[in-house]
């Protein structure tokens, strides 16, 4: 079993398919009966890479909906800036202290860059 900081290819594929602007069902990102998508999304939520909320329909139990976490979205945005402009402090190198560099380190930790 993988631990925090280690994402499988399956984890990355599901995370990349998640939108950041709306909550979706596991079936909206490719899940079917008995597929891994629900378990993978729950795992990503435990790591803080996805947000989840329960959606209630009628009087029966609710169903979980997911979206990419704001933290991941911000990190991806910072890394795009870093790639485009380089680190503000060090030019092309990463200083590790500014926002874009911290975001790059976060994405590297999870193997998302």
What percent of residues are in strands?
A: 5-15%
* Main beta sheet strand tally, sense and closure: 2 strands, antiparallel
Strand order of the largest sheet: 1-2
Low-confidence runs of at least 5 consecutive residues: none
Instruction: Count all strands and give the number.
Output: 2
The separation of the N and C termini measures 22 Å
Mean pLDDT: 78
The H/E string reads HHEEHH
Query: How many helical stretches?
Result: 4
How much helix, percentage-wise, in residues? 40-55%
- Rounded to an integer in angstroms, the radius of gyration calculated over CA atoms is 16 Å
Shape: elongated
What do you see in this structure?
By secondary structure, this protein is α+β, with helices and mostly antiparallel strands. The chain is 42% helix and 11% strand. Strands 1-2 form a two-stranded antiparallel ribbon. A hairpin with a 7-residue loop joins strand 1 and strand 2. Helix 1 crosses helix 2 and helix 3 crosses helix 4. The model has no long low-confidence stretch (mean pLDDT 78).
